[in-house]
Design goal:
Neuraminidase; 2 domains; globular
Length: 541
């Protein structure tokens, strides 16, 4: 065989390899372990301590329960089966619910969490969820193309020497947690690189490079130490302190950012030795690992060219979008219909008061009336009992009974602590006699003095996107679904949502109205009126 023939055969073999080999396997062969890995398909709940190595295909979401540890060895390549629709599927994820995830790579053998798509985009898979975990570690890892990078709730986490990029929402989202975020490279994520909200007692962010995107660090009701980081190429604010946060910001370097540091009046801070213009003596942190980019997103999530499906078709087998309020372009965590009007706390409106305005929308004219709010910093959920409004504030963790007055202010009638027996509050509803709170797995029935009457356990679904009462049933939002619940916690019906991220829901006597995130940074319609066509279609599939 001559040299020309050998070259032709080599080229042919290479083409065959490319055609038959999954993109993720090509990546692991080029970037990960050098020997051919054995493919392991995973999914479901782990029942015992488990170790992963080599090539892992996540076909179904993985859950690590209490007293179970998942160990991921250096050089392991995890690809998640991607999903880009809005009906009949789900984003795959890894979740610890009391268990631990130990993912410790090395500079030469990073652990890779990515999409299995040949042409991946933001939101292809769900993310890594760490709930009530006390010893989870992510070190020398790469996390990319997920809906959320790492979400921590009530946990202790060590995230270090890790690359987090091209995430649909937040690179890291944390509530009620203690985190160390050290020597990471974080960039080009959709909303915030780090979103630290809801009573984080101790967050340390040090020696990281925040390498561009929309916003770097956002905090609410959080204690955070920010030391010796480099922030570069941000269109928005690099460090933001809000709603009773406590920030220590020392010896950080900023360059080419929309704003270096913005703190609201409730935030306390210590700042010292920061290089605000990027031309001082503060050094750029040294990272002891490479940044391989065999597949690039090509945009920051939220850019005009974003390819994620934010708004769904107007009509499908289960529902039809009847109306969009084009002037309501800010997403809101509260929505309530009362006598021909919609009411909400407006997320970005501070016209009448120092906190979010309480807004009345006349549905005939679409004109707005604002009522000043100086008391409730971050309302979540809204209900009307026929006389008064009710809401929950996620920063102060209080329940407020209130009403608007003739002076365009709100009068606080009563303030309550979260009642004993109520785990948390996401949505608020009323049937006129009782008040109902929802969290992910429960609906709580309370009287108007906030005594718990009954806890309804939800079976077969969740309630993470608000709650409303129709007179016979509850409707709640959840991921890629609106669910109708019986009073006993069983599912009575389901329809597909109008758009990405249902965060508020109400009933006008005939139809549902929902508040959707779509893309947080877009000034598009966020409120939709929905006619239910067939709430049994999904259940019968």
């Amino acid at each position: 065989m001559n040299e020309t023939s050998r070259k032709k055969i080599l080229i042919l073999l290479t083409l065959v390899l490319v055609l038959i080999t999954p993109i993720s396997l090509i990546l692991i062969l080029s970037q990960g372990p050098k020997s051919g890995p054995e493919v392991t398909i995973v999914g479901g709940m782990l029942s015992e301590d488990t170790t992963w190595q080599g090539f892992i295909h996540v076909k179904d979401s993985v859950v690590i329960p209490k007293n179970v540890t998942l160990t991921i060895l250096p050089g392991t390549f995890l690809e998640f089966e991607h999903y880009r629709g809005y009906k009949g599927g789900s984003r795959k994820s890894i979740s610890s619910t009391g268990g631990n995830i130990i993912a410790i790579g090395t500079p030469e053998k990073q652990i890779w969490f990515t999409s299995d798509a040949e042409d991946p985009i933001n939101g292809d898979w769900g993310g890594i969820y760490c709930m009530d975990t006390n010893a989870s570690v992510f070190m020398y890892a790469i996390i990319e193309f997920a809906f959320i990078g790492i979400e921590s709730g009530g946990s202790r986490l060590n995230i270090s020497h890790t690359i987090i990029r091209w995430i649909h929402a937040e690179g890291v989202y944390s509530s009620r947690s203690t985190l160390l975020i050290e020597s990471c490279l974080i960039y080009d994520n959709g909303y915030h690189d780090l979103s630290l909200e809801d009573f984080n007692p101790n967050i340390t962010v040090r020696f990281n490079i925040f390498n561009g995107g929309n916003f770097a660090i956002y905090s609410e009701a959080t204690n955070v130490d920010i030391f010796s980081n480099y922030f570069v190429n941000y269109t928005g604010t690099a460090v933001s302190g809000n709603l009773y946060s406590n920030l220590t910001i020392i010896e950080n370097k900023f360059k080419d950012v929309g704003a270096q540091i913005i703190l609201d009046p409730t935030t306390t801070n210590i700042t010292s030795g920061n290089d605000l213009l990027g031309n001082g003596t503060v050094p750029i942190p040294y990272l002891d690992y490479d940044n391989p980019e065999p597949r690039k997103l090509g945009y920051v999530p939220g850019d005009p060219e974003d390819r994620y499906l934010y708004v769904y078709p107007d009509i499908d087998e289960t529902r039809q979008i009847i109306r969009k309020l084009e002037n309501e372009t800010t997403f809101d965590w509260s929505l309530e219909y009362v006598n021909g009007c919609l009411w909400k706390f407006e997320h970005r409106s501070f016209i009448k008061g120092s906190s979010q305005d309480f807004v009345k929308i006349n549905l005939t004219t679409e004109t707005k009336e604002q009522f000043g709010n100086d008391i409730i910093p971050n309302p979540n959920g809204l209900a009307y009992d026929g006389e008064h409004f009710w809401t929950h504030d996620i920063v102060l963790n209080k329940i407020y009974k209130f009403q608007p007055n003739a002076s365009n202010l709100i009068d606080i009638i009563a303030v309550y602590d979260i009642p004993m027996g109520v785990d948390s509050v996401i949505g608020v509803a009323s049937d006129g006699t009782f008040i109902y709170f929802s969290d992910a797995q429960h609906i709580y029935k309370l009287n108007k003095t906030m005594n718990l009457i009954e806890t309804i356990n939800l079976v077969g679904g969740s309630a993470v996107g608000g709650i409303t009462w129709t007179g016979t049933h509850f409707w709640c939002g959840e991921e890629l679904m609106l669910t109708k619940w019986n009073m006993n916690g069983t599912i009575a019906g389901q329809i597909y949502p109008a758009a990405e991220g249902t965060i508020g829901i109400t009933w006008d006597g005939t139809r549902l109205w929902t508040s959707q995130k779509t893309c947080e940074s877009w000034l598009d319609a966020k409120i939709f009126q929905i006619d239910i066509i067939d709430d049994q279609y999904i259940l019968n599939q």
